[in-house]
Structures are given as C-alpha cells and as structure tokens.
Write the structure tokens for this entry.
Amino acid sequence: MKIIDRPSLAELTTLRLGGTAIAEIRLDSLEDCERLPEALSLTGGSAHVLGGGSNLLAHDGDLPITLVRPLMGSRAADGRPAEPEILGTEERTDGRYTLLRVGAGMRVPFLLSWTVKRGLAGLEGLVGVPGRVGGAIAMNAGSYGCSTAPLLRSLTVFTPERGLQELGPEGWCASYRHFSLAEPCSWYMSASAVLAMKQADPAELRRIMQENFLKKKSGQPVHEHTAGCVFKNPEGQSAGRLLDEAGMKGRRRGALYFSERHANFLAHDTKCGIAGRTEDALALISEARDAVLERFGISLEMEVKEWPAWR
Ligand code: EPU
C-alpha cells in the first residue's frame, strides 16, 4: 500500500480536468484491502474508487475526497504488466469457455490484446476503450455489441460494511451502463474478477477487433481528451444523434467543447491556452440537456460520473 498526498485529478483522468483530492491510497494486494479502513481513517474524506479515470468529470479546487486505487493485477513483481491467471475451462452447450482471474487494476487494452491473441472472445468490441478492469466492471462498459457484465463469473469486492467477499452473479445487478451490488453498501471496490470467455479463432477475433477499431476511429474522437460518451443513450435512441440535431456539435465554452466528430463526446482542448474549468464542462452539459429536452422532450441521463459524488 502506498499513500500519496494531494493527487491531482487533472493528471488522473482522461478528460484532464479536476482539482486536488486529500490523498490517494494505492492498493497492490488483497492484504492492502484489509488495511484500507485504517488508511481511510488516517486520510479522512469520502472514499472514491478510481480506476483509469476514463469516465469521470471531477470538480476543480480542493476536494473532500480520498482516492482509492485498486492496482491489483496491473504489474507483476518484475515490473512488467501482470497476466491474467488461467483457472480452467468449462463446456457449455454453445462451446468451450476459459475461466480467467484478472485483477481490477489490469488495463483493459492489455486484457483485450492478451485474450484476442489466445482466441478468447468477448472483449473485441472494447477496442480503443481505455481504463482498467475495475472501472469497466463498475460501469458495465460496452461497445459494438460487447459489455463486461455478461463475461463475469464471480467478483471479489471490498465494502466498508462487509470487508472482502467473493460474489457470484446473484450478488450484483447489471444493465446497460449500470452495475451495482445486490446488497446495499455505502460504496464498493472490485479487487479481482473471474471472467468466462468463449474459445474462438484468434484470426477471426483480430479481424473483428480491427473492424471495430476502424468504425470507432471514423465515428469517435479517439485522439481528443474526453471521458467517452457524456450521456447514456435513451431507449431506442442515440444521444449523439439527438445532441447533433439539437445543434450541440462544436459548441464551446473556454477550453471545453462538444466534439465535431461525435456530439456525445465532451472534449478538453488542452493546447488552446485557456485553462480547462469543470464549471465550463458543467455549463455545456446543462445547455446540452436543455437543448435536447426542448427539441425532443427527452431528458438525457449522465453516463459520466461527476465527482465528488454526493451520497
Ligand atoms: N450520430 C449522429 N451525430 C453524432 C453522433 C452520432 O448523427 O454526433 C448518429 C450516427 O451517425 C449513428 C447513430 O447516431 O447513425 C449512432 O451513433 P454511434 O454508432 O456512434 O453510436 P452511439 O449510440 O452514439 C454507442 C455508445 C458508445 C459505443 C458505440 C458503439 C452510448 C452512450 N454510447 O454510441 O459507447 O462505443 O455505441 O457501440 O451507449 C461510451 O459509452 O462512452 C461509448 C463511447
């Protein structure tokens, strides 16, 4: 375990926005999770679990929060990226599956290339999605027909109320861009997960992954600083199309703007000479919501998480 004083959220999020937290507690093992309550009582502030910071909009200034970072599964003892642990295989009516244990801190792009190379299917839609496994699970990240929840076989989680527990599928509720534990808790952190991934032809998976990447590159601002899609898609609609038709593409305040490539991506122009302010991001989000409500009568729900989260 390592405790860092006053980490900058702007440095820890893909949107490159946000102020300073009280502390960052880095966890490298399950033993570290057991020592977490003691560490949190030393740092104070409300615990906010941070993965890759790719779905976050953090406020500016001094924030009354402590970042909890599960880094289990990110690095092996020799400093190289840790690999998933193969637990075995199982036969199902639709094919053979490999069970993998992965740490919450493993980077999604690493896991994707590791699994595709070995012919394990299920993540190829997530090509180009940054972040870490714990964060992907927490938001049930999805793209091009893939999402994380259907792959989950079990999950080791920490909650302040119950400590470390291994949960089976009855222990969580997952739906489109939503994941929560079935039993109430003040907050939770995933430590590791067991994924069941179907065996397939590596060449075919590579082809699907490349096809998805080309689609993503042509339709999404992959080279801009964003936090992915800002709003969830309303049932049967694309929030991007609604925002586009409501005139939000290119709308700008200070260093923040809605991307010209895809209207549901709020981006931060870090090179324009104006300091990025979360206030500008929030004002644009509110303008966008109002525009879509007025034009289509649809109330958009945020996908990006705003921090501090009020509990
Ligand atoms: N569209 C527009 N204007 C825009 C953006 C989109 O007209 O500015 C149109 C497109 O032309 C297309 C339709 O809207 O006809 C749908 O667009 P797209 O294929 O980009 O999909 P999306 O519904 O906007 C969703 C996910 C993405 C995911 C893609 C591909 C959400 C909120 N977004 O986007 O996920 O990558 O499908 O599966 O569910 C994310 O959640 O952060 C995310 C990027």
About this structure: The longest strand covers residues 189-199. The chain has three domains: 2-70, 85-209, 221-307. Residues 85-209 form a domain with the Uridine Diphospho-n-acetylenolpyruvylglucosamine Reductase; domain 3 fold (CATH 3.30.465.10). Residues 143-144, 219, 228-229, 232-233, 238-241, 244, 249, 262-264, 303 surround EPU (CB under 6 Å).
